[in-house]
Amino acid sequence: MRIVGIEHVAIATDDLAVDAPFWRHVLNISHIATEDVTSEGVNTDIYDTGRGKIELLSELGDDSPISRFLAKRGKGIHHICLEVEDITPATAELKEKGIRLIGDEPTIGAEGYRIIFIHPESAGGVLVELAERPDLR
Ligand code: CO
Question: What is the DSSP letter of 41?
Answer without folding.
Answer: T
